[in-house]
Amino acid sequence: MKTSLKTIISSLFLAFSFACAGVDAFDGQSDDLQSNYEPTAQWKAVAAKASALTKNPKAVNLTGGLASTKRHYDWTWTVMGEDGLYVTLSASTSGVKVLHSEHRQTFVAPALFTPDTLTVDSLDALNLLAKESCVKPGSLDLGGPVAGAAIRWAAECTETKMLFVDAVSGKVAKN
Questions:
Q1: Deepest in the core among 14, 97, 102, 118, taking most CB within 10 A?
Q2: Which residues pair with 77 in a beta bridge?
Q3: Average pLDDT per run of 10 along the chain, which is 175 residues long?
Q4: pTM, two decimal places
Q5: Domain count, the chain
Q6: Domain limits for position 107
């Protein structure tokens, strides 16, 4: 009886240790990194979908929100056409989908950009942020505050810590 009880306890302990000490699939980064999914690589598909609604769309913002599973980011593009129509699209490994469109009145011109001109993509930004102890940022946004401003990745590392990565140079700055 003692031997079988020891065997059961040992088996449970062994199973529990594997369950608790399993490898984190996030491994310091998102599944986006592991699957090499890069939302900026879909820019041509995003622009094509938006072109069905507006003329000559330019990117205003790319937002990645950490999914509830904390294993990947849900990506959303906002683009603006020459006619002032803003189009919001979701982007994922399964493709690009238009979510909605609207005309907006703005007092300050937004920073428009073409992702093809940027050298730091989301995967690069996540790697640079990890070096600064910002792993699994709650959100990762690409854009600029106003026209003429540098396009940069903004990462919400904690409730009080933001980091910024220049999308051309890769330089990391703190809030």
A1: 118
A2: 62, 89
A3: 44 34 37 66 96 96 90 93 95 93 86 92 94 93 89 93 95 90
A4: 0.77
A5: 1
A6: 24-174
